[in-house]
């Protein structure tokens, strides 16, 4: 029984540390009864329960620490602790065993004291806390705040944790702010549910509040939250983030920290796995900086070494960091590097970039000699450890093995100084295992090189190598399961013994056989053991009897869906011989095959796909051409489907009129039966299922023969395909090297062949009479030419990789590219009349103006290739006579001259792929004001999938149009193709065309690039024009270029008559202020900018009571419904419009009703905008939040700035940020008042007034040398006007005293005192997308800043 509250018969009391609710009959309730809701004592009761739960967790954590550290706990101490039930349970669960009592030093401050407390509301409970003597009084203060009274203290003799824990540490550090510490501590316990749940967002919100209200407490609270998070099972990543922020707050405040304590903090966080790389990097910067203590550097060096040994080499530039820290510590860098390397050897990882960088540096450094001296048996240890991750890369693996001596052991003779027999074979086997786990198919250079080095030793040892053989049926294998025939061939060539292969080499997929760089596999195919199994594997693959994923029935005699390229194993002497033998045996069966058997045989030929080109032979082609498909159809019909009266003429008619379609499970589609019925002039019901199946199979066989015959009877021209002759064969199977591959005749691609046939048919075929069933001619094999245009020549030309040659060669031979004349080509999509099937593939229809062939036939339409010799196409399409209507058309126009293309292809074959030019992407992005991805899209850069356009490519095509994309790529192609290899794309011509088409940038490229870095548009959506009472502020002339830097600056500079001018006055003030601040006096833009500013200010005054839309809130956001803005409507000058059509709220203001830039309504709008998620906020204006622009307009600064800029011609050219030029009176007054030189006074004024007085910019503005700047900084520092510190992203070392605001990119951090001089609220979301710039003229800004400083100094000096 414990503390209790009650009301109306209901009660709440603490039972076993939990709040239990009961009704008047004593039954336990599951939730708070209504009479107790809002009871004044309920929060106190809940806090007590939370405190009990937290105390139990603390006891368990401390008991576990005692066991983990093997602390001897005397029996009398256990008796004392057991008086607390929480301690009694914790000690029992942890298994603490009592020890004999020992001597105790009562004066030891590190000894833990057991302090007993009681609570008035819990008279039967006692709480015992362990604390040190120095923390005892702070713990008493904390417990008293919670209502617990101290009873007594007893010594325990137990060792303390070493440092004062949180929250006692916070009370000790800030004795004058005890009430604030206790207040925020109580809030923190509420947020974390008494340290039980650490929700980062909620904790960060409280820490942000502390940073704003009590920044001096921030560091200790961040440290405390990090410790508590780790102690109570929170996320280590969250603890690491809070620890890193604590160190940032420490540096920002310029605290003088005990370095030994700080290093202990780093060590503790690292041991807990909560030390982030960023925090460690900052610590390394500190200990290697000027005036750093060598002892701190030594401790950091030890921490970094322990971290590396524990986690491996994960840190980039590790060797350089070790060297820097060692020098700062006064140690020998080589010795320290050698000491760390010795602890890491043998290396466990050579694959990561960081590991390769580290070991490359170590192996080349003088430290390596020290390593070898310390580890005399290193070579034997490396050999015994075996291959490690990353050793498949030749660099630095070979260097590592050579420098360690392991390679000499593995490749040298066996003996006392060499590796044991069989060790080299074991190494190679394990290397192959590593390669199989790497998910890299094909040739792995490091593996092949190591195999070359190990092969002679393996041959000398005579121990057979048992390489892994993988099967396509093995589902549990790791990696791709590649069979390394290249390694096997190398071993056999060196005379090394190899274990016999399994049947069919284990039945792997052919594309999982790695052969490069030994594509002919001469040694493997010469070995009878392997030749036998290779022949068996290939034969089963050709016959489709190897149990693969597809059977013979899955392939169709007409569907060329087989191998897209010749597998590497097939393209060997043995593979070609086996293929020819298989083909001859297949063709020998032709005389005895029936129709179904012919279909199966042709399907097997379709399966081998591109390999059929290896069978080119006139005799084979003649034997296939002699196949009488019509006769086989008649025989099959007579045997299985008699009664149709089909004769020879009818069979030929059906073979010409029925389109090839796949047949599965004897099924034939309805349109086929309809066509058969029309051709034979019988009812559809009279067409039997079996008869229709036989007709369909025969049509498929006729189509398959038409596809196969050209492969066996190619043209006699020699092959010149540079992509296929590179000899870079990977495991996916490409051809061998030119020296080894036999000469083959060139194949005529189906699209080229079809185009030539259509061209000839246009002159010879009879005119079509309008009957779809009776075409002018029939072209077999037309389905292989669909789709007709499969290559984008412009992107291929700019890409110029190993695939380009094959694709562009076919494109260059297409008739509309190769022919020069009046004829025109196009592809059309034609819809057929209702209830009439579309014509079959291959049917040719010749009209008076054009000739068209069907490429693809659907249910009610078809795709056709059409040729008009005179250049004029029929107005209604090629099938208008039969009622067909054209639904789509695409003109086939050559994007490059045929001679240019052939010259390009010749250079590609001679010089290889185009060199990568990342600098061209950067240059094009800079000159066209594009992102790097957008510029890469124009240059056809596709990093991942070359066949699919990138997201950036799709976006820029949608923005500028596909025609414009083609035009600029035409301009990027130089007149001389050789320049693509020597100079790259023609950027000048492309840029000139872009500027002519879309307009030149409003400012020079350097200023535009700076704007791109300093102004970032929000990532969410933009509020477009649409329903709503506000005027769309975007310029009409740039509808497709919204939310772009050039649009923003163009709107700020455009005259009133320009379409770029923004109609809404609040769309450009921030951009105008930015331009004024980033351009010096005398810049040609400033007069026009002044006119635009004056015009905008006047337009704002003329707007009267017009409503301006500030932003919209999207109620359909993925982040949920945003907070309602309806309460804002109660503010003067603010309106909220609900737009149900768009599911948005529109927030509007009427500027004439606001009281100026400091109106509270603007702060309320900022508060609301801060609460919106990025996907919920839809800024208006130019895509940036409009509140900063509104403040500039309402302050009157824009009018003043406009008048200042309009008079710019009368000023001396130069940067106005230099007060000696723009405000000499203020400089003189400052120098006289503070006793400074003119340079020092100017520097002090810049620090007072400007938001970004970095050392680099100050030198740019003033023209000072580093020596002059240092002298001025010394004077200001000695005058006591500033503080010196090192702050992240500050770019300077001198700062005004007072709070410091850490802002995110693109803004620079800034002193809080300067916020009053700037129009944008620095910490608000509405100002987070652009750098902070002043809106008033700089002379006035300097004068105001100096006056404010004098006033503050005077107030401080008065008694």
Automatic annotation (TrEMBL):
Highest taxon of source: Bacteria
Region of interest called Disordered, as start-end residue ranges on this chain: 716-745, 1018-1038
Name by which UniProt lists this protein: DNA-binding protein
């Amino acid at each position: 029984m414990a503390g209790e509250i009650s009301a109306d018969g209901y009660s709440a009391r603490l039972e076993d540390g939990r709040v239990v609710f009961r009704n008047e009959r004593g039954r336990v309730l599951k939730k708070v009864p209504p009479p107790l809701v809002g009871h004044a004592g309920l929060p106190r009761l809940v806090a007590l329960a939370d405190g009990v739960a937290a105390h139990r967790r603390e006891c368990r954590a401390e008991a576990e620490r005692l066991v983990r550290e093997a602390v001897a706990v005397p029996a009398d101490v256990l008796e004392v602790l057991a008086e607390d039930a929480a301690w009694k349970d914790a000690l029992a669960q942890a298994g603490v065993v009592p020890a004999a009592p020992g001597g105790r030093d009562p004066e030891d401050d590190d000894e833990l004291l057991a302090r007993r407390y009681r609570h008035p509301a819990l008279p039967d409970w006692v709480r015992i806390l362990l604390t040190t003597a120095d923390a005892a009084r702070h713990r008493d203060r904390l417990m008293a705040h919670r209502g617990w009274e101290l009873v007594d203290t007893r010594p325990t003799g137990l060792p303390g944790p070493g440092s004062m824990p949180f929250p006692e540490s916070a009370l000790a550090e800030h004795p004058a702010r005890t009430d604030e510490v206790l207040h925020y501590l109580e809030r923190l316990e509420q947020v974390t549910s008494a340290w039980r749940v650490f929700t980062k967002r909620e904790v960060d919100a409280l820490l942000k509040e502390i940073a704003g209200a009590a920044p001096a407490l921030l560091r200790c609270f961040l440290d405390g939250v990090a410790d508590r998070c780790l102690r109570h099972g929170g996320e280590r990543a969250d603890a690491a983030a809070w620890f890193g922020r604590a160190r940032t707050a420490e540096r920002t405040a310029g605290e003088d920290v005990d370095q030994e304590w700080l290093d202990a903090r780093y060590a503790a966080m690292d041991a807990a796995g909560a030390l982030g790389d960023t925090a460690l990097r900052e610590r390394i910067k500190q200990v290697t900086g000027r005036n750093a203590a060598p002892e701190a550097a030594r401790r950091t060096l030890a921490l970094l070494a322990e971290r590396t040994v524990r986690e491996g080499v994960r840190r980039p530039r590790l060797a350089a960091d070790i060297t820097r820290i060692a020098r700062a510590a006064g140690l020998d860098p080589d010795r320290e590097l050698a000491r760390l390397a010795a602890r890491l050897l043998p290396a466990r990882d050579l694959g990561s970039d960081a590991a390769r960088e580290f070991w490359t540096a170590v192996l080349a450094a003088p430290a390596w000699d020290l390593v070898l001296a310390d580890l005399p048996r290193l070579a034997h240890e490396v050999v015994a450890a075996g291959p490690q991750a990353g050793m498949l890369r030749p660099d630095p693996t070979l260097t590592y093995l050579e420098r360690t001596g392991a390679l000499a052991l593995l490749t040298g003779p066996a003996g006392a100084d060499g590796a044991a027999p069989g060790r080299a074979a074991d190494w190679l086997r394990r290397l192959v295992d590593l390669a199989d786990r790497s998910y890299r198919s094909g040739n792995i250079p490091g593996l092949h090189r190591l195999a070359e080095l190990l092969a002679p030793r393996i041959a000398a040892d005579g121990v057979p190598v048992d390489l892994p053989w993988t099967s396509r049926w093995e589902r549990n294998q790791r990696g791709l399961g590649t069979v390394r025939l290249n390694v096997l061939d190398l071993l056999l060539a060196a005379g090394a013994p190899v274990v016999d292969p399994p049947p069919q080499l284990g039945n792997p997929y052919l594309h999982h056989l790695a052969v490069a760089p030994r594509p002919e596999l001469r040694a493997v195919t010469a070995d009878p053991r392997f030749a036998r199994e290779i022949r068996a594997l290939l034969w089963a693959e050709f016959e489709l009897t190897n149990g693969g994923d597809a059977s013979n029935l899955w392939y169709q005699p007409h569907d060329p869906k087989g191998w897209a390229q010749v597998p590497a194993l097939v393209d060997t002497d043995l593979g070609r011989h086996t293929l020819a033998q298989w083909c001859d045996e297949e063709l020998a069966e032709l005389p005895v095959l029936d129709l179904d058997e012919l279909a199966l045989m042709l399907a097997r030929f379709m399966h081998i796909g591109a390999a059929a080109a290896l069978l080119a032979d006139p005799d084979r082609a003649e034997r296939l051409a002699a196949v009488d498909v019509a006769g086989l159809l008649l025989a099959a019909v007579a045997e299985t489907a008699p009664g149709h009266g089909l004769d020879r003429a009818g069979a030929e008619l059906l073979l010409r009129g029925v389109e090839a379609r796949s047949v599965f499970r004897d099924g034939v589609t309805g349109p086929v039966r309809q066509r058969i019925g029309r051709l034979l002039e019988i009812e559809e019901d009279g067409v039997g299922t079996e008869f229709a199946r036989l007709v369909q199979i025969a049509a498929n066989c006729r189509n398959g023969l038409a596809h196969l015959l050209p492969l066996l009877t190619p043209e006699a021209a020699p092959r010149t395909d540079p992509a296929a002759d590179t000899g870079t064969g990977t495991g996916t199977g490409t051809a061998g090297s030119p020296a080894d591959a036999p000469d083959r005749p060139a194949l005529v691609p189906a699209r080229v062949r079809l185009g030539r046939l259509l061209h000839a048919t246009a002159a010879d075929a009879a005119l079509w009479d309008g009957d779809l069933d009776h075409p002018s001619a029939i072209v077999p094999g037309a389905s292989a030419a669909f789709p007709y245009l499969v290559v984008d020549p412009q992107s291929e030309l700019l890409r110029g990789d190993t695939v380009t040659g094959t694709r562009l060669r076919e494109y260059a031979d297409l008739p509309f590219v190769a022919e020069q004349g009046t004829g025109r080509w196009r592809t059309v999509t034609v819809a057929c009349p209702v209830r009439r099937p579309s014509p079959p593939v291959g049917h040719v229809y010749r009209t008076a103006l054009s000739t068209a062939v069907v490429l693809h036939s659907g249910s009610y339409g078809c795709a056709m290739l059409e040729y008009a010799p005179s250049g004029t196409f029929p107005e209604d399409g090629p099938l208008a006579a039969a009622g067909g209507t054209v639904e789509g058309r695409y003109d086939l126009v050559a994007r490059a001259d045929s001679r240019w293309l052939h010259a390009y292809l010749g250079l590609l074959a001679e010089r290889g792929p185009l060199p990568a030019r990342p600098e061209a992407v950067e240059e094009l992005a800079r000159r066209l004001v594009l992102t790097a991805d957008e510029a890469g899209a124009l240059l056809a850069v596709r990093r991942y999938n070359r066949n699919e356009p990138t997201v950036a490519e799709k976006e820029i095509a949608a923005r500028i149009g596909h025609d414009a994309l083609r035009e600029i790529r035409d301009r990027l192609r130089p007149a001389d193709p050789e320049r693509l290899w020597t100079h790259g794309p023609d950027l000048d011509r492309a840029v000139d065309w872009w500027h002519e088409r879309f307009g030149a940038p409003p400012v020079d490229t350097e200023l535009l690039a700076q704007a791109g870095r300093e102004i970032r548009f929000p990532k969410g959506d933009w509020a477009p024009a649409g329903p709503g009472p506000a005027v769309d502020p975007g310029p009409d002339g740039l509808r497709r270029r919204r939310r772009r830097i050039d649009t923003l600056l163009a709107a700020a500079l455009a005259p009133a008559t320009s379409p770029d001018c923004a109609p809404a006055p609040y769309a450009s003030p921030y951009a105008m202020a930015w331009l004024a601040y980033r351009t010096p006096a005398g810049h040609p833009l400033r007069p026009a900018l002044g006119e635009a500013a004056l015009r905008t200010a006047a337009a704002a005054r003329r707007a009267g009571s017009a409503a301006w839309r500030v932003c919209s809130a999207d109620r359909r956001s993925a982040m949920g419904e945003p907070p309602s803005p309806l309460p804002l409507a109660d503010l003067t000058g603010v309106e909220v419009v609900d737009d149900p059509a768009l599911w948005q709220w529109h927030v509007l203001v009427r500027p004439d009703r606001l009281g100026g830039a400091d109106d509270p309504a603007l702060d309320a709008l900022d508060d609301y905008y801060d609460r919106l998620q990025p996907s919920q906020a839809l800024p208006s204006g130019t895509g940036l939040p409009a509140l900063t622009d509104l403040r500039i307009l309402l302050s009157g600064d824009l009018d003043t700035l406009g008048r200042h800029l309009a008079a710019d011609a009368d000023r001396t050219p130069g940067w106005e940020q230099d007060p000696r030029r723009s405000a000499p009176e203020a400089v003189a007054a400052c120098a006289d008042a503070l006793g400074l030189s003119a340079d020092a006074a100017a520097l002090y004024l810049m620090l007072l007034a400007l938001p970004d007085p970095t050392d680099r910019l100050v030198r740019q503005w003033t023209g000072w040398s580093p020596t002059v700047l240092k002298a001025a900084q010394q004077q200001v520092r000695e005058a006591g006007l500033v503080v010196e510190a090192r702050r992240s992203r500050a770019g300077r070392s001198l700062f005004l005293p007072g709070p410091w605001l850490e802002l995110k990119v693109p803004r620079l951090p800034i002193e809080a005192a300067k916020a009053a001089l700037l129009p944008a609220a620095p910490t608000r979301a509405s100002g987070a997308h652009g750098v902070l710039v002043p809106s008033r003229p700089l002379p006035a800004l300097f004068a105001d800043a100096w006056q404010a400083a004098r006033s503050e100094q005077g107030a401080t000096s008065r008694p």
